[in-house]
Automatic annotation (TrEMBL):
Residues 335-430 form the Cytidyltransferase-like domain. It comes from Rhodovastum atsumiense. In the C-terminal section; belongs to the cytidylyltransferase family. In the N-terminal section; belongs to the carbohydrate kinase PfkB family. This is Bifunctional protein HldE. GO terms for biological process: ADP-L-glycero-beta-D-manno-heptose biosynthetic process; lipopolysaccharide core region biosynthetic process. It catalyses: D-glycero-beta-D-manno-heptose 7-phosphate + ATP = D-glycero-beta-D-manno-heptose 1,7-bisphosphate + ADP + H(+); D-glycero-beta-D-manno-heptose 1-phosphate + ATP + H(+) = ADP-D-glycero-beta-D-manno-heptose + diphosphate. The lineage of its organism: Bacteria, Pseudomonadati, Pseudomonadota, Alphaproteobacteria, Acetobacterales. The gene is rfaE2.
Length: 468
């Protein structure tokens, strides 16, 4: 599938009907459906062969292009069916409020030729893979014949099978090793509630009796639970800190589980990793992936909750690579810069406003030599290493780099951020790099200042000097 996210501003109510009039501000595309599973696998370091149905259209090429930028994803297993479009889901939102979703799809059962081609592609992939993930979205692709052939091919190759189900008739998944329903899917398949641990265990037992497969139940704010014959249940609380969007969270879970199983991890450990990645991805807007670096950072925080090392200062070349990776994921990248010598509420407000305008925030710090030239021989008060450590530890900041020049123009030209943020003591015309960002279609934002807050004033106050 192709996921399209259009974000804008609701300016007024239409005179034609009681609906909002949207002024689009940004549009991004992401690999959706099974392609999102593949994208998450690749982002976590897996080698993926994607098998599925696409249309003979531009959207199919967009999906392949998006995957090509994420890692090792072989799309040769995609079968083109000219009689149907590539499924495209377009979400229109303002901030965190989604107004409408438009689905372009054809859910008819596959004709004989594309079905047979799909089965052949699945059988070839099973001989190559260490684990098979079947993402059934109920769109007519995972017909009985396709599922039976896929599971049989995997079993013949000794390849474990994970199924993310949509059907109520789960008997068709018999032969799989693990099924990963959410609460609604488990209830619809078994007719049993699954809100409490005891209810979940009874409902999972009913699914196990039908499929003879283990069940990993994703339970939203309750975390996840694993049930298998002859073993005690495993319950993990959610790892999510903030939930902005649950789009594709199940895809991230099954992708992480698949990698864990392929690596030979015990189920409890694979679940822990999947729980962490789910907690990360629901904190993002729209369909998104979790990278190995993000997962490692989350695991480090969990292992050392009182010791949260900030991201290190990165070289410009590494920052450019990270910015390109974020761009391929469809993320809006923001940029701000400054000396950030003695941190005060004005700095925090600026960073919070900058982070609110983007998905990822890069902060460029003036080096010690640069601050010395700009502020005088007594500055900076803190070394660049100390300033970077403090800034990097702040929640709004995703990446920190240093620049030696008096202005960040060269850095802005190299990074090409989508959003450039400076304080409202500037005008658009006086913001360094504003013309570069605007020429590339980006935005320049002037953040509201905290009155009376500045490092210079703090220094004067500490020295007993009048602050004016």
């Amino acid at each position: 599938m192709l996921d399209v996210h259009i974000d804008g501003h609701a300016t007024r109510i239409s005179p034609e009907a009681p609906v909002a009039v949207m002024r689009p501000a940004s549009e991004r595309r992401a690999a959706g459906g099974a392609a999102n599973v593949a994208a998450n696998l690749a982002a976590l370091g897996g080698c993926v062969r994607l098998v599925g149905i696409v249309g003979a259209d531009a959207e199919a090429h967009m999906v392949c292009d998006l995957l090509a930028g994420l890692g090792v994803v072989d799309t040769s297993g995609l079968v083109t069916d000219p009689s149907r479009p590539t499924i495209t889901k377009t979400r229109v939102a303002s901030g965190h409020h989604q107004f409408v979703r438009i689905d372009r799809e054809d859910n008819r059962p596959l004709d004989t030729a594309p079905r047979e081609a799909l089965i052949a592609a699945v059988q070839a992939a099973a001989r190559w893979a260490q684990v098979m993930v079947i993402s059934d979205y109920g769109k007519g692709v995972c017909a009985d014949a396709v599922l039976h052939a896929a599971i049989a091919a995997a079993r013949a190759a000794g390849c474990p099978v994970l199924v993310d189900p949509k059907r109520r008739d789960v008997a068709v998944y018999a032969g799989a090793d693990l099924i990963t329903p959410n609460r609604r899917e488990l209830t619809e398949a078994t007719g049993l509630p699954c809100d409490t641990d005891a209810e979940a265990e009874r409902a999972a037992a009913a699914m196990i009796a039908i499929t003879n497969a283990a069940v990993l139940l994703t339970r939203s704010e309750l975390g996840m639970s694993y049930f298998a014959p002859g073993t005690p249940p495993i319950h993990l609380p959610t790892a999510a800190r903030e939930v902005f969007d649950v789009s594709g969270a199940g895809d991230t879970v099954v992708a992480t589980l698949a990698l864990g199983i392929a690596a030979g991890l015990p189920m409890a450990e694979a679940m822990r990793l999947a729980n962490e990645t789910a907690g990360i991805v629901v904190g993002k807007i729209g369909t998104a992936v979790v990278t190995r670096a993000e997962l490692q950072a989350a695991l480090d925080r969990a292992a050392h909750p009182r010791r949260m090392p900030p991201p290190g200062v990165v070289a410009l070349a590494d920052a450019i690579r990270q910015r390109e990776a974020w761009r391929r994921q469809g993320l809006v990248v923001g940029f701000t810069n400054g000396c950030f010598d003695l941190l005060h509420p004005g700095h925090i407000s600026l960073l919070e406003q900058a982070a609110a305008a983007c998905d990822r925030l890069i902060v460029a710090l003036n080096s010690d030599a640069s601050v010395h030239r700009l502020k005088g021989p007594s500055r900076p008060l803190q070394t660049e290493a100390a300033r970077a450590r403090v800034i990097g530890a702040l929640r709004p900041v995703d990446l920190v780099l240093l620049f030696e020049q008096d202005t960040p123009l060269a850095v802005i030209e190299a990074l090409q951020p989508d959003v450039l943020v400076k304080g409202a003591d500037y005008t658009i015309d006086t913001v360094v790099g504003a013309d570069v960002v605007q020429a590339a279609g980006g935005r320049v934002i002037l953040a509201t200042l905290e009155e009376g807050q500045s490092t210079t004033r703090l220094v004067q106050r500490m020295a007993g000097e009048p602050t004016g």
